Amino acid sequence: MKKFTYPLLALAVAGAIISGILLIQHYYPDAKIGFISCGQGIFNPCLSLAQSGYATLFTIPVAAYGLLWYLLALFILLIADYAGGRYHAFALALLLPLCVIAVAADAVLGLILIVLGILCPYCVATYGVNIFALALVILWFRSSKEENGFSFFETFRELLSGEPSPDRKAFYSAFVLFFFLLFFAIFATSQILKIKTEGVKIPEDKTASFLANFYRSPVEKIDFPGTGIVLGNPKAEVTIVAFTDFLCSACYEFYRIETLIFSKYRDRVKTVYYNYPLDSACNSDLKRTVYKNSCIAARAFMAASEGGIVEEYILKHFADYQNTHSRYDQGMAIAAFNQINTGARRGLDEKRFLAMMNSDSTARKIQEHIGLAKQLHINATPTLFIAGRRLVGVPPVEILDQLIKNELAGTKALE
Prior knowledge:
Blueprint: H1 2-27, H2 45-52, E1 56-57, E2 60-61, H3 62-83, H4 86-116, H5 121-148, H6 152-160, H7 166-198, H8 204-216, E3 230-232, E4 238-244, H9 249-265, E5 269-275, H10 294-307, H11 310-319, H12 321-324, H13 330-338, H14 350-357, H15 360-375, E6 383-386, E7 389-392, H16 397-414
Parallel strand pairs: 4-5
Antiparallel strand pairs: 1-2, 3-5, 4-6, 6-7
């Protein structure tokens, strides 16, 4: 029976690893784990799925149930391999219905992904593991039936009824204890991760008060000129205008919130960026530099805009922000460009990108952005405009999410 149990053990280990990655991705979507990527662009399928409401069951991530299943299967197979004898038959009797249930659950989850239009590579990988596991268990069943006259119902009845021997009683006790300890460990860990990553939620009354004040503020009639630094679908229904410093810590937090918004609303939202570097090297309005070399970052983003690689560049720029922003220089700007796959660079090379960064045209455009910010009396980053209303600083994700919902509802009502 080892020709079936060993491949099943390998599949159970693979499934447990993938489910563990999915569980971590659920709570830490920015985590770089494994060689399978959840999403290469600003739209992250893991984030999209997590925000859809279908990633949890009874407030527990579906990935946690998958991890429980694979570890339980691993335990059953290891016991069968160690004990031998009738335990192989008992393992088969347990695994056959469990594999059928797993594949049936996967069919439902796969249908949900299709309806949502989301491709989750990790999820698909677990579906493949379960299908292969079920196929192996069916082959094991057929082989056992031909060689030993295996009967599923009789074996299952034997497993659950009759007066077991002392060693069988000990095994049953250990199995039940293991299952409940495993159940408790996985779901307790999930709850701990949830508490650690949820943060402090804004009370509904404060959200409502903030939104009421926002919509009471006047709509500023501003004719924003084209900038080229656009993230998201250029034809999106809702536009967020952001005056930013690409080395600003608050702007980085806004970017992190953007990834949630883009993943949730996908092609329905876009951000149009304008440079307002808090660096006196290019911003004469400042008495002192707040973020050294942010003028270089502004030039890099203007070059990325000119080269048509804004999305690719912003992902690389912010990928290691915590370790690079305090010592940022032109070399790091070029390093971010070089990290972009050659095929995604649209024919740009390092020499051309550097030339665009340091061109007179780029410097002139940055000054136009700074001039516009001065005209609008902007002195903090990020400063956002949504439907003509100003929002200074980084709004909590709950508030920005509700603003987007309101604006989408408004644009739909006008159609």
